[in-house]
Amino acid sequence: MSKRKPFSGSHRGLVVAFDVGTTFSGISFSVLDPGVVPEIKSVNRFPAQIPGGSSKIPSVLYYDAIGVARAIGAETQLPIIIEQAENEQWIKVEWFKMHLRPKSYASSLASRHIPPLPPSKSLVEVLADFLRYLLSCVKSFIEETVLPDGVSFWASVQNRIIFVLSHPNGWEGLQQNYMRQAAVLAGLVSNNISDQDRENEGIIILDAGGGTIDISAYSSYGSGEAIAFQEISRPECCFAGSIFVTEEAQLYVQDKLRGTRFYGDVSAITDSFDRTSKLQFRNSKEACFIKFGGRSDTDLALDIRSGQMKIPGSDVARFFEPSVKAALKAIAQQRSGARRTITSVFLVGGFAASTWLSSKLKDGLQPLGLSIYRPDTHVNKAVSDGAVSFYLDHFVTSRVSRWSYGLRCYIIYEANNAEHHERGYITSTVTGKLQVLNKYSVILQKDVEISNAQEFRSSFCRETTTCLNSISVDILKYEGINKNPAWTDVDAEMYSTACIVTADVSRISHTTHRKPGNGSIYYKTEFDVILLFGLTELKAQIAWKEGNGVEKRGPAQVMYELD
């Protein structure tokens, strides 16, 4: 890995990354001192956390009846809080991140197990409450630890902190929009955000988290301080994280204890499995023992002795099967679509601590000639550290388009074109021309390598009875298997609106034409839609030619339709 360069700014600054996970969340940050090489540090002290505890806190909140957050993070595990929550009927909110998932990933498995949000709170509000809490945590930690005077330092940078929010690689514009709304509501930023190992060897990063398993493939180029990485295959995101292993365990325990005096202990047994046994499990031939009660809690017929429930290792192994199969399938898809030979898989994330997961992936990957590596420390904060590194180091210079993007439009009817003849035509009320509808005009094809500054553009025109002052175009996303989609009425269910691009076109010259027949005047406005996909967020511009042939550009706003 290349040596990080000293910070070139003229004033002290701060980068903060929030990794809001399905089950656990973490914070990393870097103080930017002029002329000093930035270091990535983690918040490892949170309210109510045991001293010397983890660099992660539970992604859990308790709300009271009127929607006020009463406890967040490690606070929710305090016995006094649990008792108060039960007495006052607070609502426990967990796995809220899963409500952000794109519709295309809403599998029956994921949908069945996601707890609902409180009736009085929206997803954005819950996420904002959690981000606001994380902000208070990093503020306190920095004020207490940054030398020589953390309080003064925070006060000097608090209005110009760079925030980086990580998310699964399956999240797109709509999910990023929700996260941005939550960041604004939480007070992280204001609402006017500015637009600001061997050469060529292919590797896969498998981020196994609580809710999702995210797989991305990269290759390196350059060396030393000039090293950088390119994404070499479309990223994969599957809902097969560690929470689903816990769910399988819960279903098993429920079935076994239904109708017995221990059925009320299902939740305690499941929680104990989730905290300890799940990550400790390593051998399908050895039984798993889950501690949940005392010496008097015994029923040998149910495999319960002295408050411990025994589960055969073969059954525990089955709890992991859906996650292992999903991960291996996603890796195979990455490998088959990669532009370089994949040689290694790096397993990170909180679920990477599972020895069984690692060993089963190794068993599945070795026959394919793939080596699997698991960093020996701090895999549970790899995402938040990586988010800060993404901002500081800019190692990733290109990525691969997940889907095809384009516009639905019409084209002039050609009588000798079989596809046109099949669809028929309509007569434009504006121009009187015969035209065919539902043509898909591709701006960006699927599986195209995109550099950070690369532009994709297509030319369009609007013909109207009055001069246009603004335009609005729907950018369609095609998620089907057709490599060259041409018509939106073919494989129609695979098309959806990715976003809506709007722009001011009042400065564009409009040409006038006359409609055949009655000679009425109509206006023709010609322009290019320019899309930039290179960074994680889609951006758009509009371009046009002036009378002297010089291209002019104007900003375009990208908006998303809410689910």
UniProtKB/TrEMBL annotation:
InterPro entries under this entry? ATPase_NBD
Query: Which protein is depicted?
Result: Uncharacterized protein
Native species of this protein? Answer: Rhodocollybia butyracea
